[in-house]
């Protein structure tokens, strides 16, 4: 959570809190799903509702930290789920706040794992030890190790230029005409979003399946 208070009153709110983890759907406990929804989604909603009266009064800005992962997932579906949900919350809020002069912006970073440390490298051994007996009957250690290696390689490719995301946040807060969405990502990441957003699901699934393989 970041806030910006000027001499004119409460001007800006940035919902930046977020946590991430790795794991296929059945590998994660219900408690973990609840924790992620509480921090990544409900935390932003709670903060927004608390400051909404001031933001309406001073015609301020609300900025949300989303991700290109809202469009697809490569082993971190729990994170994708929360970011997709926050996108829809922002879409509703942006339309509703327009009549009050309050602008709502979404920042959609690509892979900046090396800049933010939001996702540390994953350990196949730790993942395996946390699996239920039912999941261990379906998967084996070799598969878990392969998935962990794949995800860790993605993390290593993350950009270290975190200032690019900060610049987008500053522009969203201070520009006379901010964008509704700021996609701060590499070209190949933008192309993947383009495929996922505009092409039929069968094409998206084929592309992502190829990437996972």
Distance between the termini: 37 Å
Q: Biggest sheet: strands, sense, closure?
A: 5 strands, mixed
The parts where pLDDT drops under 50 for at least 5 residues are: none
- How much helix is in the residues? 55-70%
Strand order of the largest sheet: 1-2-3-4-5
Question: What is the number of helices?
Answer: 9
Assess the beta-strand content as a share of residues: 5-15%
General form: globular
Structure classification = alpha/beta
Strand/helix succession: EEHEHEHHHHHEHH
Q: Based on DSSP secondary structure assignment, what is the total number of beta strands?
A: 5
Tally of distinct domains: 1
Family: Belongs to the short-chain dehydrogenases/reductases (SDR) family.
Signal peptide: 1-16
InterPro entries: NAD(P)-bd_dom_sf, SDR_fam
Organism: Struthio camelus australis
Write up this protein.
It is a single chain. It is built from 9 helices and 5 strands; from the N terminus they run ββαβαβαααααβαα. The chain has 213 residues and is an alpha/beta fold. The protein has one domain (12-187). A 5-stranded mixed β-sheet has the order 1-2-3-4-5, sandwiched between helices. Helix 1 (30-58) runs parallel beside helix 2 (77-97) and helix 4 (124-130) crosses helix 6 (141-156). The protein is globular and about 60 Å long. Keywords: Membrane, Signal, Transmembrane, Transmembrane helix. This is BDH protein.
């Amino acid at each position: 959570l970041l806030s910006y208070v000027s001499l004119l009153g409460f001007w800006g709110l940035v919902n930046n809190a977020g946590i991430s983890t790795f794991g296929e759907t059945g590998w994660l406990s219900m408690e973990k799903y609840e924790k992620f929804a509480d921090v990544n989604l409900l935390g932003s909603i709670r903060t927004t509702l608390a400051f909404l009266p001031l933001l309406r009064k001073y015609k301020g800005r609300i900025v949300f930290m989303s991700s290109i992962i809202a469009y697809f997932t490569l082993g971190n579906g729990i994170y994708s789920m929360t970011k997709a949900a926050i996108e829809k919350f922002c879409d509703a809020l942006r339309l509703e706040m327009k009549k009050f002069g309050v602008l709502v912006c979404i920042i959609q970073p690509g892979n900046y794992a090396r800049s933010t440390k939001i996702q540390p490298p994953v350990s196949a051994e730790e993942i395996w030890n946390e699996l239920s007996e039912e999941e261990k009957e379906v998967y084996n250690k070799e598969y878990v190790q392969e998935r962990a290696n794949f995800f860790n390689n993605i993390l290593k490719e993350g950009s270290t230029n975190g200032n690019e995301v900060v610049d987008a946040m500053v522009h969203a807060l201070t520009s006379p005409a901010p964008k509704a969405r700021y996609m701060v990502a590499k070209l190949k990441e933008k192309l993947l979003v383009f495929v996922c957003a505009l092409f039929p699901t069968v094409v998206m699934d084929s592309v992502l399946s190829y990437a996972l393989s």
